[in-house]
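=== RUN LOG ===
request id: a7f3
mode: sequence -> structure
chains: 1
length: 115
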Amino acid sequence: MTVYGIPNCDTVKKALTWFKNNHIDFEFHDFKKEGISAKKLNEWGKKVGLETFLNKKSTTWKEVDDNVKETITSIETAVPLLQEKTSIIKRPVIEDGKFLFFGFNEEAYREHFLG
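=== RESULT ===
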């Protein structure tokens, strides 16, 4: 299983603590250090749709120029921005086989990992 995120994000910290407390092994992919591939973003977009993981509530999104925001109409147009500003991706991203989840939700984690 891979957890994607930013180490200083409070939501990511909650998720990592939950996994550690429940003795669930994971690899951590740091968006800031490792970035994210266009291939992976496109894969997520096909599985769940851009609106699921484009975090329009984030401070980073709010700082994006309105003219740029207007061009973000599909996963294809969003990929360059998501790669440049990974803080716009809803975090954490939990990828475990076919399970793909964005954000922290203890109930969803419990059902999938401890079910």
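=== NOTES ===
The first strand starts at residue 2 and ends at 5.
Residues 2-114 form a domain with the Glutaredoxin fold (CATH 3.40.30.10).
=== END ===
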